[in-house]
Design a protein that fits this description.
It comes from Micavibrio aeruginosavorus (strain ARL-13). By secondary structure, this protein is α/β, with parallel strands linked by helices. About 40% of the residues lie in helices and about 20% in strands.
Amino acid sequence: MQSLLLIEDNPIIGSMTETVLKSAYKVEWVQSAEAAAQKLQSRTHYDLLILDVNLPGMSGFDFLRQMREGGQDYPVLMLTVHNSVDNRVEGLNAGADDYVCKPYNPDELLVRVATLLRRVGGSTQHIITHGDMRYDTAFCSVEKAGVPISLSAREAAVLDILMANIGRIISKTQIEDFVYGRAGSDQAQSNAIEVHVSSLRRKLGHGVIRTVRGLGYTIPTEVDMDALDSEDEIPAPHKTGLADPAE
């Protein structure tokens, strides 16, 4: 099981976040940058750090800069209550790999953690195969039955989040936030995700990306694919065996 270090000083948010993450990962929770530094110095292995910006004493930004200057390359997902472009830019410049704004949706947090872990995984982990489709996460390239398929940057981003979460239903809002960023998603055309999904279906074939009525999109597991017909739209999860996004 992959191991995460959660650095969050708020006891309520920290406890809730720890509970959400423990559904899929081993989690250690500390409440200050100083305590986190001690954990990292103990040579305990972590696959990912989840770091709050507003910590007592040393801020999350300063702690992250100190980490990077010291050569520590752990992937870092930042938690912030600030949704401004300047705040996100400061975090990325400090060395963050991604961010989630508080209050966050638990499903969004799990999706971003899973996507980031997969993206920064070792070289043996960056190829995802699904049926006759082969997706290279390092280069955002895809082959179908051995034939390379050309994707736009945003088509690749949509496919990226779905391939990282095969068998899970990802809402349209979660995809918009991933593809455009939270600020950018407000400016995206209302049907932008539908357009990208439609284009992906033309390129990859129908039945790969499914619309789950009222919930979002999914790439079913290969077992579920065998049990479903080739239609692009499928019923709600209690009729399909797919993972409910609220679970």
